[in-house]
Amino acid sequence: MAREKRRIKKIDNITARQVTFSKRRRGIFKKADELSVLCDADVALIIFSATGKLFEFSSSRMRDILGRYNLHASNINKVMGQPSPCHQQVEDCNLSRLSQEVEDKTKQLRKLRGEDLEGLNLEELQRLEKLLESGLTRVSEKKGEFLMSQISSLEKRGSELVDENKKLRERVVTLEMAKTMALKESVETESATTNVSSYESGAPLEDDFSDTSLKLGLPSWE
Known about the structure:
By secondary structure, the chain is mainly alpha-helical. Helices cover 76% and strands 5% of the residues. The chain has helices at 14-39, 62-80, 85-112, 122-216, and strands at 44-48, 54-58. It has a two-stranded antiparallel sheet. The protein is elongated and about 130 Å long.
């Protein structure tokens, strides 16, 4: 019994779409590599994801292959005097695809903002609700990470300020002790200088007094 052919359509679930894109991308890159090896062909693939991320594969340098393609297309245009139908078709297809993607993204964004919900059924509303809850969860997690990072930075800064304050206190105590010692030494030096000065100025007075006393005590022989 032949297998029923699966209908190809856009995957609505974003997570499933991303998983499928990743698997299919690796598969097509593998096939391109096999084609290059088996048939000795130059193969180049360029893929843009729904988010605009670039993925590419080339059997040789991508720039060389693109240069050969542009040269080939330019030669055909010169000969034919008009754009290559294949090239024009590719351009039209890309333009149509990009326009459709822009329209889809615009509609999805309006729904996420709570607009244009009238035509949605219960299943689509539930899917949109889950998408919003998932996004809100990621936003809350990111907010929590940011707050924890800020708290950690503030705690680190607080610890640094405590250490700096402790060092400043120790420095102030050291300076006060040095000031007290210098003042004490200054007082002792001044006191010693005063005592020496008093001693030196008092000695001649005692000699004069003794000499005067002796003179006054001599008897008169006249």
